[in-house]
């Protein structure tokens, strides 16, 4: 069973939507009873009974419509909360990976890992392998590293001029490193937005159109042979 179907079934039985299902069923039963009462009243020709039957039928029909709307909203609400949980888990992953790169650099003469092997060099020593997987991704290893800073000296570029240079972002396996921008390779998994970490350690979520505002390359010249 794929994840979307599984989530849909969970949504149907989750929390108060279960009670709304019950209410909708009661409305259907009430509607059928009211319809029968209406038919009998029409046959008898009793005007008072007919008016009551029409009112009961309209009430049952209105309750049914309300319960269906409530059901739709509850499914939407639960679906959204799942999506927010995924986005939060993804941001936690990226922060842990970012910290792992920082720890790696401390052990390797302040150098960040090279772009081609950054993921395997930091796991499992500095971060668990699970952190490489965004919960909204369909493939494992769902993050990329900005190749423009990979292999560089952390202390050289982690100054005030470079606080807003991206380090990690959302991408697809098996390619995990890109240089000079990532607009065409980034994955926008969270309501059309992508999580990104920056040199000073902060994380932000960006939409496709806002990516142009980011500077991907440090202003200083970095030793290319070490990336
Ligand atoms: Zn993600």
Whole-number total of structural domains? 2
Rg (CA only): 28 Å
- Secondary structure category: alpha+beta
Q: Which molecules other than protein and nucleic acid are bound?
A: zinc ion
Strand content: 5-15%
Task: Explain the overall architecture.
This protein is an alpha+beta fold and 227 residues long. The protein has 2 domains: 3-82; 86-226, no CATH class. It has 5 helices and 5 strands. It has helices at 3-13, 17-44, 47-107, 118-122, 154-157; strands at 143-146, 166-170, 177-178, 193-198, 203-207. A 5-stranded mixed beta sheet has the order 3-1-2-4-5, with helices on one face. Helix 2 (17-44) packs antiparallel against helix 3. Zinc ion binds next to loops.
How is this fold's topology laid out?
Blueprint: H1 3-13, H2 17-44, H3 47-107, H4 118-122, E1 143-146, H5 154-157, E2 166-170, E3 177-178, E4 193-198, E5 203-207
Parallel strand pairs: 1-3
Antiparallel strand pairs: 1-2, 2-4, 4-5
Helix pairs in contact: 1-3, 2-3
The structure holds zinc ion (ZN).
